[in-house]
Structures are given as structure tokens and as C-alpha cells.
Amino acid sequence: MTPGPALRDLLASGRPTYSFEIFPSKHGANDPALWQTVLELEPLKPTFVSVTYGAGGSTQERTLDICRRIEEQTGMSTVGHLTCVDSSVDALRAVIRKYVDAGVRSVLALRGDPTAGPNTSWVTHPNGFRYAIQLVELLRELGDFTIGVAAFPEKHPESPSMQHDSRILAEKQRAGAHYAITQLFFRPVDYFALVDRAHAAGVTMPIIPGIMPVTNVAQIERFASLSGAEFPVALRERFEAVRDDEQGVREVGVDIAFELSVALVQGGAPGLHFYTMNKSASTRRVFQRLADAGIIQR
Ligand SMILES: Cc1cc2nc3c(=O)[nH]c(=O)nc-3n(C[C@H](O)[C@H](O)[C@H](O)COP(=O)(O)OP(=O)(O)OC[C@H]3O[C@@H](n4cnc5c(N)ncnc54)[C@H](O)[C@@H]3O)c2cc1C
């Protein structure tokens, strides 16, 4: 598969995209549990599966390996994430060449988080990039990629303001980005306000909302605090009511992700991107409910 131009054409056509995000398993591309998840997602016919990219050589190879296996052994297209963390520009060029060899022509171009952890300063590699925009420019230079970038409904944690974020998103588009995917969030109003600000700044590319069906309250609270997303009190109370019941938590997580997805699609979102956390069950249930309710057409 070479989904680069195909995904770009689909995005340009205005047809909604449905996508799933996985992360590479530490057991490699042959991890049976991860592969089972991939195979369970395949019948939903996603527009693409995106694979995250971590810091460190072996993690990066695992991203490539799982992308390659999905491209070769399923009917699904992949989007490989790529970050500037601890990488020289030459090393980034080499990874991009490997993506091409693996059949991956769509890349989510990211800066990555500071390696020393949350709330620490970003340190630019002496021969590397400071901002994701530079990676977008490199991808443009190296080939015919469909390029995605990150967007932040509740402001990037290091950013001085939401308006600054919007200007950066517009610059990413000018540099060659074709679409954006948002950080996870829980209130539709935060997504639509981001879209309004982005439009005012000149952004015309699709901004796809990122949704994480909650399966574990402690985990989501950690993610929310890392990403700067607020976990609203009203939602927390719904989980509190079932806190000692694992299945109950998953049910509430599916309900909340479904309600959020309905509000987003009905409000005009150009697609849905699900953070699956390598577990397909909740995402599949949300997806099925959306299809049954006629909210999404497959
Ligand atoms: C959908 C999605 C997927 C992700 N996948 C991964 C992944 O696979 N691996 C991973 O490590 N991380 C991933 N992340 C996290 C991401 O790397 C972090 O959120 C990171 O802190 C910011 O990345 P960015 O691409 O937005 O960086 P940038 O766009 O470079 O922004 C970083 C900060 O710099 C500011 N900035 C950017 N450009 C300029 C400029 N020209 N002038 C002044 N200020 C500027 C921005 O406002 C922001 O505060 C993902 C995030 C999202 C939303």
C-alpha cells in the first residue's frame, strides 16, 4: 500500500476519516497480543492505523516493524509517527527512507516530548530540529508524503497561549501539513473552540479529533495531566460511581466516548481518531454503536 497521495486525496475530498492509534509493543511486531488487536480492528475498515514513535533506537525500529507488518499482511494503511527527539537531521532522513522502504507514505510529524520528563525543558539535538515544523519541511523535501501534525484543544503545555498554538498550526499547514490530529480531550466545546481559533488563523486543513475511550481511571488521569487535558468533574463522578467495578468502568468509558463522538460528528468534525492503547474492545464497541446509530457510515 502507498497511502500517501491516497490519504491526501481522501482528506481533500471532505469524506470523513476513521483511524486507530496503537503503540509498538516492547515484544516487537510479532507480539501476539498486539497483532490480535490489529486483526480485530481490521474489519472496521479504518482509513488508517497510526503507530506511535518513542525515544531510543530499538523503540523506533519497532514502529517501523509493526508498520511494515500491517502494510504487508493486512488491507490497512499505516501512518508512521516520527519525532525530533534526540535525533540529528541525518538520522531523521535515514528513518524517513526506511518508512518509504516499508511502504509507509504518510507520516505524523511531531517534535516529541522532552526526554527528561514532563515539565522539563526541551533540549534540541545539536544537529537536529527544534520544532515539528522543521520536520514537516524535511518530509516535503524528501518525498510525496501525506503529512499530519499535532493540535491541542486545551493548549500545548509549553505554549504561551491558545492563539500562539493557532499561529503555529497555520505555520505547519503553510510548511506542507495536510491535516492535524488533536491531543485527547473530553469536552466537545474545547475541540470546536480550537477549530474556530485555527480557522481564524487561516487553517483550512482538516483537524481530526483524538478520542480515548477510558478503560482505567488512574491511567486516564495520568494521561490527562501529562497532556494538559482537563478530566472534567462531571465525568469523574460517573466513574466514581463504578470505581470498584472494572467492567463498569469500561462501560462508562464506552458511553462517554460514544457521547463525545456523536457531538463531534454532528458538529462537523472531519473524522475520528481513537487512541486504542493497544486494546480494541472499547474502541470497537464505540465504533459499532456509532454505526448502529447511523452517526458514521461504513
Ligand atoms: C496525535 C498526537 C500523536 C502523538 N504521537 C506521539 C508519538 O508518537 N511520540 C511522541 O513522542 N510524542 C507524540 N505526541 C506528543 C507530542 O510529541 C508532544 O505533544 C510534543 O510536546 C509537541 O509536539 P508538536 O509536534 O506539537 O511540537 P511543536 O509543533 O514543535 O510544538 C512544541 C512547542 O513549541 C511551540 N512552537 C512550535 N513551533 C514554534 C515556532 N516556530 N516558534 C515558536 N514556538 C513554536 C509550540 O507552540 C509548542 O508549545 C503526539 C501528540 C499528538 C497530539
Short account of what is shown:
The chain has 298 residues and is α/β, with parallel strands linked by helices. Helices cover 47% and strands 14% of the residues.
Task: Explain how this protein is built.
Strands 1-2-3-4-5-6-7-8 form an eight-stranded parallel barrel, surrounded by seven helices. The longest helix has 21 residues. The radius of gyration is 18 Å and the shape is globular. Helix 6 packs across helix 7. It has one domain: TIM Barrel (Alpha-Beta Barrel), CATH 3.20.20. The chain is 47% helix and 14% strand. The model has no long low-confidence stretch (mean pLDDT 94). With 298 residues, the protein is of the alpha/beta class. Bound molecules: flavin-adenine dinucleotide. The site of flavin-adenine dinucleotide has 22 residues, from helix 5, helix 6 and strand 6. The site of flavin-adenine dinucleotide (FAD) has 22 residues, from helix 5, helix 6 and strand 6.
Instruction: Provide a count of the helices.
Output: 11
Q: Percent of residues in helical segments? A: 40-55%
Second-tier CATH architecture: Alpha-Beta Barrel
Question: Overall mean pLDDT score?
Answer: 94
Bound heterogens, unique: flavin-adenine dinucleotide
Instruction: Could you tell me the CATH topology label.
Output: TIM Barrel
- First-last Cα distance: 20 Å
Q: What string gives the helices and strands in order?
A: HEHEHEHEHEHEHEHHHEH
Strand content: 5-15%
How many domains would you count in the coordinates? 1
Largest sheet descriptor: 8 strands, parallel, barrel
What is the CATH first-level class name? Answer: Alpha Beta
Q: How does the helix and strand content classify structurally?
A: alpha/beta
Number of strands: 8
Alpha carbon gyration radius: 18 Å
